[in-house]
Amino acid sequence: MATLTVSRPPFGGFSFENCRRNAVLEGEANKVGCSLPAARKTGTTICGVVFKDGVVLGADTRATEGMVVADKNCSKIHYISPNIYCCGAGTAADTEMTTQIISSNLELHSLSTGRLPRVATANRMLKQMLFRYQGYIGAALVLGGVDCNGPHLYSIYPHGSTDKLPYVTMEVASLSSDWFLCSSCSGSGSLAAMAVFEDRYKPNMEEEEAKRLVRDAIAAGIFNDLGSGSNIDLCVITKGKVDYIRPHDEANKKGVRTGDYKYKRGTTGVLSKTVLDLEVVEETVQTMDTS
Amino acid sequence: MLNLFDTRGLRSQLKDSIPVAGLCPTGSYGLQDSMRSGFTSVKNELLPSHPLELSEKNYQPNKDKMNFSTLRNIQGLHAPLKLQMEYRAARQIQRLPFLQSSNLALDTLRGSDESIGFEDILNDPAQSEMMGEPHMMVEYKLGLL
Fold first, then answer.
1. What are the GO BP annotations of this UniProt entry (chain B) (predicted)?
2. Segment 13-42 of chain A within 8 Å of chain B by CB
């Protein structure tokens, strides 16, 4: 379809053409009293812990659309590179696309340098992209992985700020006891999960202990926050090995019906019985025109 | 949603390189697209519909400006001059205006052949459903219009 767009060559990327229309539509809808459909979010509990040999990342599996559960078993731990994985909270599409773009960029980068990618590189790429879009891309991420410098854990907020844990480079005015710094939680259920961490975290834990801690933290989020639910996924990253355990724990199994409404034969008494045999009189085949 | 406070900050961005007029997107055939952008008004033409619109439009030129000025401060005037000359030469390697050019030399110079961003995924111009009118576009490019 030919048009008269003469002056500007077309370019890719975000197009803001429909923003005014959307604003007008939202205004009209609010006047009438209804609201436009909400984007699918992962109101979520995600967390990560650095233990002796690596990093354990954990997430629940519920995706919500407003007040309705949209997906009972979605996967929130995304692959970034063979040694780096990332949990995402916030708008589901944003976390998915962001992690995929960064994963592709990191792969190109590692092909060009010839080395295994570092977690700090992924962190820097994510932070620069999220800052460029000023928080309109609603992706809050927990990035963890093991590279040549050891295990690392970062938390990245939608506006582009990041926290590196466990090293004390955090400028946030928080209680900077070092066990707090070795763990990271995000999402709506993060307060419940953080409470579990604050209670039981120790530095240099063993793998089984770290997995138990993460499982309990996510379970706290699942059972105490309405935005999180279903199963618990775990991802254990150590030097040279990644264990993606999905599901690690089916905390909410769908219930089994205890009663049965089918009646046994003979419950109702039979008064009389007549049998009518159907006789086949004629059989014809009519071919269909399937051209 | 654009509230009145945002416009004060945006006004400082209005002096950027890409001209502001033309923020109101034209539909097919150059006319006002009432379905998408509402009725015409002066405010619509001057103010962007989304706070990110101006910043995204000017992102590449601003990044280039910043890189060139850093390069000038570190290595002297010759470095950005040489690079800009190369960019201009690479930018001239194009197909006819209504066809999609690959811009391979330009991408290699910029380093964007080794990265993937939203401009490669969303609204890929190679897959756009509309194309410009060939005669008009060539005449415009040659200055005959």
1. proteasome assembly
2. 13-21, 23-24, 26
